[in-house]
Amino acid sequence: MSAKLHRRPPFRAEHLGSLLRPESLLHVRADLDKGTVQQQQLTSAEDAAVQDIVNLQIKLGFHPISDGEYRRHMFWGTFFPGMEGFEEIKNPDPDMFRMYMPDIAAFTETGHKPGETVICTGKIKHVGSTYIDQWNYLKGLVPNDRIQECKLTLAAPEWYHMRYKEGRAYPKSVYRNDIEYFSDISTAYQKELQVLYDSGLRNVQIDDPNLAYFCSEKMIAGWKEDKENTKSVEELLDEYIKLYNDCLAKRPADMHVGVHLCRGNFVKSRHFSEGGYDRIAVKLFHELNVDTYYLEYDTPRAGGFEPLESLPKNKNVILGVITSKVPELENLGEMRTKVFQAADFIAEGNKETQKEALQRLGVSPQCGFASHADGNSVVRDDMVAKLTLVRKLADSIWPDEP
Fold it and tell me: Which of 93 and 285 is assigned the larger pLDDT?
């Protein structure tokens, strides 16, 4: 665990990366799928849209600038299919999935396929970054002294493991067990982070709804009922934390890494799971070697602030107290009260003052506005109003801080 407390990043006012795509961009992407336009036309539309959303973030006073994830269909991007040893399956066999995994259940219940289905078919090898072009374009839109503030979101390392039934994530002829499989995953992440670091990236956010699944009683019950599973839920969480730590083992000291936990953000604002952080807080905050936790806290389904008592003094939390799912605006005073309540729990756990605890906090929406390209049940004006409220909330607690 790093002994250093990272600041700036993170910032007092944050957002989680994905922002609503303009309709014009969605239309061009749909036309590309139909074959009526060429890739270059889509790229040009993406370039223009990214420039616009970067300018909007700067205008609203945000420092962790993202490209809105405008070049992605889903929030996790194309890290896995971009590696040697992975292949996407267009029409997967439903029997390969753990149907009790919250995202799988949400996709199938609404008649959708379970997201992109990418499986390991051979030895895993990093053969080039699929994020680097996105990053290089983004950093070219901001002044040099703000490049280190810009944020890139990455896929969770266990994303294409947890969702598949025991033995389905990779062929036994390629990897004998999870230890071997995870070893090559972590090596690939190490290379990816180094490539991005060498190009100037200093602010990374890993998006991981899977970690929040360990808070879900429904998921845990499904896991226990699944006779194919060879390990307990607790053992799986331990393995995933080790995987994370191996992925991050070689990151440079000045590269800030945070992890975002939410309970899903599917099309039209649907969530996947429920459950507070209580059952994972100690392991999450003390064993996972990241600097910052971006935590969903906009509804009771995320539980209370009590688990924050376990947050150590060298870690930050960004409180996602403003929802990105519906247009109704939260009350500023009520949001301030929530932040101070959270700080009180952190202070109690560390035997410090509320003022000291506040130094390790920031605020944000609970999740992105468009984890899926189609976006949440809000429009652009709603998104701007929400982001404006985030900035106002931060300014009311930490005046003159970014």
Answer: 285
